[in-house]
Amino acid sequence: MLRLDPEPGFQLPEPFQDNRGRVAIFIDGANLFYAALQMGIEIDYTRLLKTLTGRSPLLRSFFYTGVDRNNEKQQGFLLWMRRNGYRVVTKELTQLPDGSKRANLDVEIAVDMLSLVRWYETAVLVSGDGDLAYAVNAVSYQGARVEVVSLRSMTSDQLINLADRYIDLESIKDYIKKTNRPSYLYRPSFTTDEEDEG
Question: What is the DSSP code (8-state) at residue 35?
C-alpha cells in the first residue's frame, strides 16, 4: 500500500481531503489528454496522482493508452509513468478506414476495476466515457464507492448518475496542471471519436 504525501505548500482540493479508504485509480489516457486540451493545460502526472489519492492509501493507479511502438517520445513518457507510480496498460493502435488511429481500452479498464474491487474501498475513474457506466454500476454493487473525474462537457450523464461522487476536472485543474517544472508531456498519436465520450 502506498501513501503519497503532498509536497510542502500543496493544498488538496476539498473532495480529496477526507480518507476514502484504499483508493484504486483508473485513468483513460486519451480521454484525459483531450480534456486537458479543452481546458488549455498540460497535466502534471505527479500532481495528478497526489491529488486523486488525497489523504487515502493508494492501492494502485492504472494509466490506459493506445501505443505506437515507433513513437520514441511516447515510449519515453510511458517509461516515466511506470517509474513514477503508474501501472501502464497499453494496446496497439489500429488504423481506421478514415486514416486515423485508435485504441479502445474500455474492456481493460472495466476488467481491472472489477478484478480488484475486493481490495479497494474507492475507485477513482478518470474518464467520461459512457461505455464504462455498466462497470461503474457493477463495482458499486460490490460495495465500493466510485468517483468519476472528468470534464463535464465530455462526460456521459449516465456515468455521473451512477457515480457516488462526480468531480469536474475544471474544478481541480489548478491542482493538476503543469507548472515550470520539467516533466513529460503526453500526446497520444491518434484521434478519438467524440461519440465514445458519451
Answer: H
- pLDDT confidence of residue 194: 46
DSSP code at position 62: E
* Domain that includes residue 163, residue range: 22-193
Q: CATH code at 183?
A: 3.40.50.1010
CA angle at residue 165 from 106 to 81, to 5 degrees? 50
- Cβ atoms of 32 and 176 closer than 8 Å: no
Record the pTM: 0.83
CA-CA-CA-CA dihedral for 154, 66, 53, 120, to nearest 10: 100
- Within-domain flag for 43: yes
3-state secondary structure of 101: strand
From residue 53, alpha-carbon distances to 38, 58, 105, 152, 154 in Å are 24, 6, 23, 21, 22
Structurally, the chain folds into a number of domains equal to 1
Tell me whether residue 65 is in a domain. yes
**pLDDT averaged over 10-residue windows placed end to end, the chain, 198 residues:** 50 64 96 95 95 94 94 93 96 88 94 98 97 97 96 96 96 90 56 48
Q: Does 75 fall in a domain?
A: yes
